[in-house]
Structures are given as structure tokens and as C-alpha cells.
């Protein structure tokens, strides 16, 4: 019988959130350094476009399907957390057998996908970037063949992540992506004359393999043993995994179709357009990914246990607290991106092959993408509630319905309104909002969430954000008139605006009697005392 979660769990969730945040920051920072190195050597060019086009399917496997929060991680947590009596228990024979069935089936499925990806790389890239030049398609195909093994690695990593989270091993799943980044940085730094990006593609595959290998010792230490089997017919728990997993995989894959639509439209734009969108997404994921991961990774097993116990009131409490904190932290991110995107990207990336034109393209894409932060955190939070009730079909159906919207918006914003790169990321923001709204509406079939206090606080957050934005915009205009050397100017502007923004925003939320601001102030006061 799963243990009951009570109010005493809140401090442990917050402690886990801080721990995960610190670990994720380290991992994301290393990923950020990797992107800086890649930008320095390859810029926003046809070579970088080819690499990022080719990387999309492997990254679907290792980040979307197999990453923390992906279908394999989510399915493992949703099912195994209900079979393990408590977080410290060793897996018994039944759990180990289920683990091996899940692992064996996943390995065979992704191995087949990997082989098919290698064999049909030319056709796949030809379809995805059909509006691109033959040279671009050929180069992307070569990259994709080298990175096709990552498809196999991704699903297995996802299973291991889920099992580790079930046993409260939060550090390794969130830190291991650092391995991939380190390998890429080291390899491409040692090879200075990679004119085709082939070395970059090879380093990415090697890094993914290393990321998988580092999971083995801890999984074995917990008590899981590899004994391959295909016991899929007489295993009701494996059926539960499949019922949750397959719609979730389809939902994630369908979601990727939106990205492939973006890739098609980006290939109609100028050279470096897709690279700019990718870098904008990477920068976006640095703060937002840390925020979402920190809170939702420890909350998801709790959601699953509470759903299994039928404790709906506690789910409502945890959901409102978690989403409220995410809204509170997400608003200043939007403000700072809108005010400082160009200066920050210039300071961090503008060197080597990454020129001023690339800075403008990436900052433009990032600013329009920032509008998706609040619906993004709500969408990801409420999706975990669906998964806790073993419902991945509803998120799948909603994701399916958003594909046509994405295509229409891209057509309208890019081809008709001539917004270029900005049209790609603005349409992404609209689609994210669409998904969040409908996920929020249809959850009543599982649980009637109490949105009233959440959105009352949300309105206060928006008001505080608008006032903070206007104040900081005026400050930015004043700083822009100061004559300083380029990098010093950017450092001064970013530092001053960040401090003032966070100060004004927090003060306004305290004035509006926001619980999140009061809790933050109390924690700071206690630490000083």
C-alpha cells in the first residue's frame, strides 16, 4: 500500500525543489556553455542549420520522449511509484520483472526506429526541409545518419530517469545531461577545422551514449537487474504502462509535428533562420526549464500517489501552490527577456562566427517566444495531473488538434504578415496558450480543480508585472543614453535592470499581499537572522 502524503511532505517537496533547481542550473549552465561554443565555431550558417535540422528527431528521443518529464519518465513514475511501498524500498521480483519487460520492449522498438532512421535519412530530411537547398538537405542527411543511434538511447534513458525519481534519486537524472554537453564542448574544441559539422554530430552521439552509461551503477545499486524478457501478455502492470505510454508518445510525437512545420517554414527564410529559432528555444529553456523541473519532478510522484489513494483535496492544494509559484517566478522572466534579450545574447554569444545579424535574429525569436512562459508552466503542470490519473489520451487529443492551428498561424504570420522568424515563435506562444486552456477545461472529468484563488493571484502577478515592465523600460531608455564600451555597457545595463526589476516586482507583490512574495521575504529574513 502506498504511503499517505500529508502536510509534512511540503517541506520535503520544497527541499527537493531547491536541490533539483541547483542541480538543473549546473546542467543547464553547461548546456548553455555548449551552445556558446557551438555558436562560436558554427555561427548561424548553413552548417549549423543542417545540424539542428538533423538533431530534431534524435532530440525528440533523448529530450522529449526520454528526458525528465517525458513519456518514458512519466510512465515509469506513474506506475512504479504505486508498486514501491516507500521511496527507500528495494524492488522486489515482481517490480524487477516489470522493469525488464519495459526495458526489453523499449530497446527493441527504438533499435528498429534507429535503423530505419539511418536507412532513410535522405528521404526524411528531404521531407522535413523540402523548401531547402539540395546542399542543405544532403548535409542534414549526413548529420542525421551519424546521430541516429541517439534514438535508441533516448527511451532507455527515460526509463532509468523514472526509476531513479521513484527512489528519490533526483540528482543524477537532472545532472547527467551535463555529460553530453561536456563531450560536445571537448570534442569540437579539439577539432578547429570542422567545416561540415560532421565532428559536431559525432560528438553529440558520443555524449548521449556517455549520458546513458552513467545511469547504470545507480540503477544497479538500487536493486534493478537486467534480465531481458518479453512477458507482455500476462503482466497487468505492463498493460498500465502501455495505456499511459503510447498516447503520451503519440502526444509528444504529434507535438513535434508542430516543430517540423516550423522547420519547413524556416527553410523558406534566410540562412540561419532555423539556427536562430533553436538558440531562442535553448535560451528560453535555461530559466524556464530549471523552474518547471525543480517543482514538477518532486511533485509528480506525489500527484500519482495521491491519485491512487483518491486524495483529491491534497492534489488541488499541491497543484495551486505549485502553479502559483511558477506564475510568480515566470512573470519577471518575461519582463527581463523583453527588455534585455538583445543585450544578453550579444554579451554571451556575439563572438567568432556568431555576428550581429545572428544576435538580432535570435533576440527577435526569443522575445516573441517569451509570451509562452506562463501558459507553458500551466500546461506542463496540469499535464502531470492527467498522467497521475493514468490519462495521457486527453493531452494527446488536444496536441493533435493544435497541429492545424500551428500550420495556419505560421502561414498567416510568416507568409501573409511577413513576420519572418518572429512569426515562428509567436505562433508557438499562441499554440501553447491553446493547449493550456483546453487542458485546464477538460481536467474536470478527473478532478474539479479550484481555479478561483489561483487566478485571483495571477491577476495580481500580471498587474505587478506590467508596472515593473513600464518602470524598467524607462530605466533602460536612460541607460541607453550612457556612452560606455560595448561589453561594459551590456553588463551594467543587464545588472541594473535585473536588480531593479526583481526589487520592484517583489515589492509590488508584497503590497498586493501575495502569499508567494511573503513566503520569499520570510525565508530571506529567517536566513539573515
Give a written overview of the molecule.
This protein is mainly alpha-helical. The chain folds into 2 domains: 9-449, no CATH class; 450-524, no CATH class. Helix content is 81%, strand content 0%. The longest helix is centred in the middle third of the chain and has 38 residues, at 312-349. The two termini are 42 Å apart.
Secondary structure layout:
Elements (H helix, E strand, L loop, with lengths): L8 H34 L3 H20 L5 H13 L9 H27 L1 H8 L5 H14 L1 H18 L4 H5 L1 H14 L7 H16 L2 H7 L13 H31 L6 H37 L2 H38 L6 H14 L3 H16 L4 H24 L4 H22 L8 H30 L5 H26 L3 H14 L1
Helix pairs in contact: 1-9, 1-13, 2-6, 2-7, 2-12, 2-13, 3-7, 3-12, 3-13, 4-7, 5-6, 6-10, 7-10, 9-10, 12-17, 13-14, 13-15, 13-16, 14-15, 14-16, 14-19, 14-20, 15-18, 16-18, 17-18, 19-20, 20-21
Task: Please describe the structure with a list of short key phrases separated by commas or semicolons.
single chain; 529 residues; mainly alpha; 2 domains; 21 helices
The number of domains is 2
What does the main sheet amount to? Answer: none
Q: Tell me the distance between the termini.
A: 42 Å
Task: Work out the radius of gyration.
Answer: 23 Å
| Beta strands, count | 0
What is the SS-derived class? mainly alpha
Task: Report the principal-axis shape.
Answer: globular
* Total helical segments: 21
- The amount of helix comes to over 70%
Which regions have little confidence, pLDDT < 50, spanning 5+ residues?
1-8
| Overall pLDDT level | 84
- In N-to-C order, the SSE pattern is HHHHHHHHHHHHHHHHHHHHH
What proportion strand? under 5%
Amino acid at each position: 500500500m502506498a504511503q499517505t502524503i500529508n502536510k509534512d511532505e511540503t517541506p520535503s517537496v520544497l527541499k527537493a525543489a531547491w536541490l533539483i533547481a541547483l542541480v538543473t542550473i549546473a546542467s543547464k549552465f553547461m548546456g548553455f556553455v555548449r551552445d556558446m561554443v557551438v555558436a562560436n565555431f558554427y555561427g548561424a550558417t548553413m552548417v549549423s542549420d543542417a545540424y539542428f535540422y538533423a538533431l530534431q528527431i534524435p532530440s525528440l528521443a533523448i529530450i522529449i520522449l526520454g528526458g525528465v518529464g517525458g513519456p518514458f519518465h512519466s510512465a515509469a513514475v506513474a506506475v512504479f511509484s504505486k508498486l514501491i511501498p516507500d521511496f527507500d524500498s528495494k524492488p522486489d521480483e515482481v517490480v524487477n520483472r516489470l522493469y525488464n519487460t519495459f526495458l526489453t520492449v523499449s530497446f527493441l522498438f527504438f533499435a528498429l526506429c534507429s535503423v530505419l532512421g539511418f536507412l532513410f535519412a535522405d528521404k526524411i530530411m528531404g521531407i522535413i526541409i523540402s523548401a531547402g537547398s539540395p546542399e542543405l538537405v544532403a548535409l542534414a542527411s549526413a548529420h542525421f545518419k551519424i546521430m541516429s543511434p541517439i534514438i535508441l538511447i533516448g527511451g532507455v534513458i527515460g526509463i532509468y530517469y523514472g526509476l531513479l525519481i521513484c527512489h528519490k534519486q533526483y540528482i543524477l537524472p537532472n545532472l547527467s545531461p551535463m555529460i553530453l554537453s561536456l563531450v560536445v564542448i571537448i570534442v569540437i574544441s579539439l577539432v578547429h577545422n570542422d567545416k561540415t559539422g560532421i565532428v559536431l554530430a559525432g560528438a553529440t552521439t558520443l555524449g548521449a551514449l556517455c549520458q546513458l552509461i552513467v545511469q547504470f551503477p545507480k540503477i544497479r545499486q538500487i536493486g534493478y537487474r537486467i534480465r531481458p524478457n518479453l512477458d507482455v501478455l500476462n503482466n497487468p502492470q505492463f498493460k498500465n504502462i502501455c495505456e499511459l505510454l503510447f498516447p503520451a508518445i503519440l502526444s509528444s510525437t504529434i507535438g513535434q509535428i508542430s516543430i517540423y512545420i516550423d522547420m519547413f517554414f524556416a527553410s523558406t527564410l534566410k540562412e540561419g533562420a532555423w539556427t536562430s529559432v533553436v538558440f531562442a528555444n535553448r535560451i528560453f529553456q535555461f530559466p524556464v526549464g530549471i523552474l518547471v523541473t525543480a517543482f514538477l519532478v518532486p511533485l509528480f510522484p506525489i500527484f500519482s500517489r495521491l491519485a491512487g489513494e483518491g486524495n483529491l483535496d491534497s492534489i488541488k492544494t499541491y497543484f495551486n501552490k505549485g502553479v502559483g509559484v511558477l506564475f510568480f517566478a515566470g512573470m519577471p522572466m518575461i519582463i527581463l527577456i523583453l527588455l534585455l534579450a538583445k543585450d544578453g545574447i550579444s554579451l554571451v554569444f556575439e563572438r567568432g562566427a556568431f555576428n550581429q545579424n545572428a544576435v538580432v535574429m535570435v533576440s527577435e525569436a526569443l522575445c516573441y517566444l517569451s509570451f509562452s512562459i506562463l501558459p507553458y508552466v500551466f500546461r506542463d503542470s496540469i499535464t502531470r495531473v492527467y498522467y497521475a490519473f493514468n490519462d495521457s489520451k486527453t493531452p494527446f487529443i488536444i496536441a493533435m488538434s493544435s497541429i492545424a492551428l500551428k500550420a495556419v498561424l505560421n502561414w498567416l504570420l510568416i507568409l501573409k504578415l511577413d513576420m519572418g522568424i518572429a512569426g515562428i515563435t509567436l505562433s508557438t506562444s499562441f499554440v501553447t496558450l491553446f493547449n493550456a486552456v483546453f487542458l485546464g477545461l477538460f481536467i474536470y472529468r478527473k478532478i474539479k480543480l479550484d481555479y478561483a484563488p489561483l487566478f485571483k493571484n495571477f491577476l495580481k502577478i500580471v498587474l505587478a508585472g506590467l508596472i515593473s515592465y513600464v518602470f524598467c523600460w524607462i530605466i533602460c531608455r536612460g541607460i541607453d543614453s550612457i556612452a560606455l564600451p560595448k561589453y561594459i555597457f551590456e553588463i551594467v545595463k543587464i545588472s541594473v535592470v535585473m536588480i531593479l526589476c526583481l526589487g520592484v516586482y517583489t515589492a509590488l507583490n508584497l503590497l498586493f499581499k501575495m502569499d508567494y512574495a511573503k513566503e520569499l521575504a520570510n525565508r530571506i529574513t529567517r536566513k539573515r537572522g
